[in-house]
Every structure is written in C-alpha cells, then in structure tokens.
Fold this sequence. Notes:
Strand order of the largest sheet: 14-11-12-13-26-25-24-18-22
CATH architecture of the largest domain: Roll
Helix content: 10-25%
Shape: elongated
Number of helices: 6
Amino acid sequence: MKLIIERAALLAALDATADAAAREDTIPILQNVMLEAAQTKGGDGTLTLTATDMDRAIVAKAAAEIQAPGALTVPAKMLRQIVSNLEDGAQIGMEAEEDGTRLRLRSGRSNFVLGALPVDDFPKFAAGELPHEFELDAQDARRAFGVPAYAMGTESLRFYLCGILLEPKVEGRAKHLCAVAVDGVRLCRLRVPLPKRAASMPRVIVPSSTVTLLSRLLKDAKESIDVAVSDTRIRVTIGDIALTSKLIDGQFPDWERVIPDKPKIRIDLPVKAARAALKRVAIVSGEKNHRAVWSLTAGRLSFETRSEGRVATEEIDVGFKGDEIAPAYNSKFALTTLDQLAGNDAVWCFEDAQAPALITDEADPDVLHILMPIRA
C-alpha cells in the first residue's frame, strides 16, 4: 500500500472513525483502524477507514492518490494524534512495508513508523439484513439523537433504559417518528415528521454510546441521511460515513402511560427566573440531598431546600390559580430539565403533588418532558 492524502481529508475520516475503536484494555486489534487503499473504476483513488469495538462499526472514505493498493491496520488513537498535530494543508505520504508489519508516514520533515497488524485478523462487523430503509432530514436526525439524550438511563441493571427509543406513531392523519429517553425519574419525548417508508419499522432502542457517536457525526450534516433498521441492527449513513450498531435487546417501558392526560394543576413558568432561583437554593442542599419543595400559592412559587440545619428559600412570580400545593422534586434533575427548554416560558402541569409533572416548551411544541416528584 502506498498513497498520498491531504491532511484535512485523512483527519476528517479519522475523527469519524477513531472513537469507534475499542479502548486500550481490550483485544489489541480492536484498538486499530483498518486502512484500505483502492483505485476506483473511474481512476479516482479512495482510502477507506474502518473501526469497530464489535458493538458498532464506523466506515469512512477519503479521496487519495493511490500509488499502490493494499490494506493494513494501525493504532487508531495514535494515528489520529499524529495527523491532528501536523500542519494545516499538509500532504501525507503513507507506505506499508512489504511484510505488512509497519506503516511509514511522512509529511514535510516529519517521519513516523507505526506497527501494523494484518487485515486478516481484523474482525468483520456483520450488519445482516436491514429491511427497513428510509431517509431522515438531517435536522430531524440531529434532534432525534440529541434532544432526548439527557434523560437516557445509566444503570446497567436497567440496561433497556440506556439509550433512545425510536418508534413510529401513526394516529389518524398524525404521523410521527418518536424519539424517547427515560431514566426512571425523567422522560423526554421528541417527535419529528414520519419519513416515507418508516411506518413499518420496528420500535428499536439505540444504545447511549451509539447515540453519542451519532450526535457528533450529525453535527455538521446538511443533507438527508439514510437510515436502515432491523430488529437487531441500525445503520446510519451520513455522506461518506456509515455507522452500523447493535441495538439494545430489551423491552422499553410503556412511556405513554406516565404522561398525564388532563392534569388539573398548571403553572405558567418563567424559565430563566425559575432556573436561576432553583440553582441558588440548591447550593445549600449538599451532594446527597437534592430535595427541593415547590410551594405554590396564587401567583407565586417558592423554592425551599433544607439540609443538615441549612435552609434556603426564594420566591418568583408565576402564572398559577388554584389551591395551595407543595410538590417536591430532585433539584438536580429539575435543573437539567429546565436546561433543555429553549423558550422564555414553559407550562408545568401535574395532577397532584404525588403525580408526575408534564413540562412543555412554548418554543418547541414537538418536545415534552416528564419529571417524577419525590414522594412523601
């Protein structure tokens, strides 16, 4: 293998793939990225990079001047560090030694030699049949894998919550693709228009690690992306980058059941003022006790926290009519929910002090949040 490639092209491909490589405490070859240099039928050269940890794989392609085709694998993290530290606009020469055990890199006055492992030992990540294929608008994809992510679970015992559920919903003329995350205390549901040919896809749970990779890969995407799904795998193609991942094999809870139907109590909440006040009173609660009582009277909301003799209270003006009531919420989780709201005002509804709160954002009607109270 021998080629010349622009630094920017190689770095973009490495940025896309290197994070899919396994960590240093796993099988050595899974820490490598596979480089395949090939000449296309049209005469153009392509360097294909592949990395996998056996739960997911990313393939990226970059244009290159191929002088001799070939393939080998080298440490992904180290190659990325080398290329990222070369000068902008640099050209990089790459050449494999005849026995395939080392890769030589040169750029200007910089020269590197990396140990290589044979491609025959590099595992193939099997995607299998992916019968459900559709296009998803780039902005919708960015939101689907980004907005609900804060509510993903992290407990290994409830592994089926450690990701985002994708579920098609067809209710009369309303057709949506729902993205849902739940951690047992918080829930976030985003809906986007249902893409053509997506109505028959199964409900699938995309793992949190894959969600993180997709959020990064989708950051600058402008055109529609291709999605292909089976019961066990998902593949998302963004231009010259394709990510294929296993799905979580588990039963996602009936998330719609916890959404209040017609809650009796409504707060018209000024988001910025509520966030600032709650953040201040939470200071005294310490690291373990995050309980904050929300005391509601006509036109007022008072936050109160207590911990080991410390007390903090603060009032803000809100839109509220009804009997006095005082639900309690985990201030940490309440703040992360408030942080997701883009508008100046939100609607905070609940049935009673022991019931889940439904939060909607005036600036983003396609998103709803649920926060469970701390029950007495």
